[in-house]
Specification:
Shape: globular
Keywords: ATP-binding, Kinase, Nucleotide-binding, Serine/threonine-protein kinase, Sporulation, Transferase
CATH superfamily: Histidine kinase-like ATPase, C-terminal domain
CATH class: Alpha Beta
InterPro entries: Anti-sigma-factor_SerPK, Anti-sigma_F, HATPase_C_sf, HATPase_dom
EC number: 2.7.11.1
Order of helices and strands: EHHEEHHEE
Catalytic activity: L-threonyl-[protein] + ATP = O-phospho-L-threonyl-[protein] + ADP + H(+); L-seryl-[protein] + ATP = O-phospho-L-seryl-[protein] + ADP + H(+)
CATH topology: Heat Shock Protein 90
Largest sheet: 5 strands, antiparallel
Oligomer: single chain
Structural class: alpha+beta
GO molecular function: ATP binding; protein serine kinase activity; protein serine/threonine kinase activity; sigma factor antagonist activity
Helix content: 25-40%
Amino acid sequence: MNYQNYMKIEFLSKSQNESFARVVVASFVAQLDPTIEELADIKTAVSEAVTNAIIHGYDSSTEKVVIECKIKGNTIEIVVEDFGNGIDDIELARQPLYTSKPELERSGMGFTVMETFMDEVSIESQKGKGTKINMIKTIKVVENEE
């Protein structure tokens, strides 16, 4: 255990829980004293990951989504995991504007948004077993001016 703080939550894959996930992660990361912009970036990335789990992972059926957060120094690591469909081709799924659900008018920008707002994003997925998205962001330390 080489982290300073840790939390794990589990919730049902219902679209109304996406905002719950954002708030929980934002509350946890607040201890690092992020800027408003850093906090907004993290909340947006979490929203995208949770939405992907609900819509693509489970085809909107009600299952569980798990979020784990670890703080190491001034870095937050966020893992969003589902146990659903999995991704056929991760590299294709990462391409801007690609969506496996065009009938739902999805923008296909989920992974692009996560990669834009976080320092690192990695994806593990197995067909029929689920997807795990690992996101890392280092919060800039602001020196006090006196």
